[in-house]
Every structure is written in structure tokens, then in C-alpha cells.
Fold this protein.
Amino acid sequence: MNVIELDKQYIANTYARFPVQLVGGKGSLVCDETGKEYIDLGTGIAVNSFGIADDEWKAAVVAQLDKIQHTSNLYYSEPCALLAQTLCEKTGMKKVFFSNSGAEANECAIKAARKYGELKKGKDCYTVITLKNSFHGRTITTLSATGQDVFHEHFTPMTEGFVYATANDLDEVKTLAKTHNCCAVMIELVQGEGGVMALDPDYVTALAEFTKTEDMLLIVDEVQTGNGRTGSLYAYMQYGIVPDVVTTAKGLGGGLPIGATLLGARAQDLFTAGLNGSTFGGNPVACAGALSIINRLDETLLKGVREKSEYIFNELSGAKGVVSISGKGLMIGIECEKDASEIIAKCMERGVLVIKAKNKVRLLPALNIPLRQLKKAIQILKEVIAE
Ligand SMILES: Cc1ncc(COP(=O)(O)O)c(C=O)c1O
């Protein structure tokens, strides 16, 4: 049996995969089992921040592998401590909990919020307001936090304690805060899976103010928007707010699984020994790789992200077949006249990998994609959209 047949027989049917097996590559070029090469504008859904087999990231990972691959959280470990220090110094957050995925990072944030509510307003204060059309993960609790009914089907009863407000409607948040005993508001600043929709800056500023006056935590889910993706280290930095909790994963690891929950001043002391934990969380190899990624997200790199973003927006805005373009930095959604799946398949035929978000074509290229490759890929995409 070939790999596709093996997969179909033995892997749980949770993924609708493209009929392609990716076997290798370098940077933003990836190749399949036949040797066909593609320009990768998907990066494993915003994970391979510096593309495939990046030399600096690989060196950091291999150097750590030569020392020790895992310690458990019963012992101290340098890569984990250094990564936490770097994240805190670069964000102003105070403490970090490491896990292995975005969903787990969000689970930790929700635990922090419930503990905060209990401390401040008693045991009944556990409701978290999230936004309609959001996506926060696949565990039962993070699915419950996800404001899209379609994700709740088949899995009821969901974890209780989540209510949903329409994005950019502060009055709705205020009403929910009045009618429920709320400990936190949790938002994505650019709703990724929901169709790459950036929140309105005035709404975000007012929301941050509201959570402060109401003594609720503001949790920003930067699983997809974080780590340079939107043109700043974290997207909240462009909104001029200071969240109480920031969650991240995906691009932080550069290709290895890691989740991080960054706790700000109001949240830093909520956890005591035993209140959360993870066997693999803070794994030294994942942390060593992540540290090399974070250290490279300097102003020069971020400026490059913003410039490439501008190039894509300029090329595609008003182009034939394009209805609208949304997003921030190198997290872009393109609404097209034609069906997105058809465009994705045609791009693949022509050697460009793009993905989908709702009915849009989504682009999440490597932060350091060479301009030459980006230009070539965007021209192909433009032609396919216009056909
Ligand atoms: C905003 C956001 N939060 C959480 C998640 C879940 O992350 P993971 O798949 O690593 O659990 C995702 C994944 O797409 C995401 O985009």
C-alpha cells in the first residue's frame, strides 16, 4: 500500500487531506513525493515561521538534542527558563506556562480566568465572554469557547460558562457582562479560522478599558496571530492594549509543538504548585527551537513582514476575480468570485500551496519568504483567481 492508502486505512477520518504527500524542502520551497516543487504560502498553518529546515532553527534544535531531549517538569531546565525570560522581557508579561498546543494554552488561560473570578467575586464568577465566529481549539472546553455552533454539534453537553458576543459590538459585551457573572473576555485580534477578520481598533481599546473597570481578565488568543505573523511580535502590540493573558503556539515552535500562556501582572500569581501541569510542556528541544525563533523576530524582520503584506494587498486589491482582501501582516484572507477550493486546487497544480479559511483563500507564508518567490506565487494566484 502507498502512503495515501495506508493513511486512509489506519488514520482516523478527521482530515480531508489534499492528494499530495509532502516529503521535504528548504525555506519556502516544499516538494512532494514525485519531486514536484511548490512555493509554500501555508507554512503548515502558520507554524513553519522561517520555512522548512531553516538552518538556524535546526542548529538550535539539534544542539539541544545532543544534550537532553526531555526532563519532565520535576526538574529545572535551561531552555524553558530562558524562553520564558525572553517572552516576558519582550512583552512585559510576568510569567509563562508552557504546554504543547494552542488549545492547551487556551485551557490554561481559561483556568486562570476562573481562578481570578473565584478570588475576586466568588465561585459563581466563572463565565467567559468570547466572540461569535471565533476559534479557540478542539478540546471540549476550547470548543465551548469557540463561538461557532457548527463546532459544538455531536459533542454536547459543552463545558458550561461561555457566552458569545458579536465581534466589534461593545454593547453586546456589556449586556452579557450584566446578565452573567463574568470573569474574563477572550478574543482573537484577527479571527483566523473565522475568515481572517481583524477586529476594529476602537472596539478593542474600549473593550480593554471595559474589562479593567469591570475587573475581568482580558485574554488575547495569539495562537495564530502571534510571533511576528501580523507584523508585530504579538498582534496586541499594534492595538496599543495590555492584555492580562496572552496565549500562543503555532509559529512559536517553528515546527515543533509548543504552547505558551503568558500571564500579566493581574494573572501572574493565580497558579500555585499543582494547579496546572503538563508532561511535555516546556520540552527542552521545543523550547530551544522556539528561543531561536523569538530571538530572530527583530524590527528588521517585522518590517519585512509588513512590506511583504503591503505588496500582497497592493497586488490583489481590486484584481480581477477578487471580491475583498482582509487580515494583517502575513495573515491574509482573499474573498474571491470563484470557489476557494477550486482556486486552491488550481494553485496546487501550478506549484503554489495556499489554504482556506471559511470561504476565503488564506495566505500564511513564512515570515522570511524571499520576495522573488513571493512575487512568483502571487502572480500565479492572481492568474488563477482571474481565470
Ligand atoms: C486562534 C486559535 N486558537 C487556538 C487554536 C488551536 O491551536 P492547536 O491546534 O495548536 O490546538 C488555533 C488553531 O488553529 C487558532 O487559530
Summary: The radius of gyration is 21 Å. The chain is about 40% helix and 20% strand.
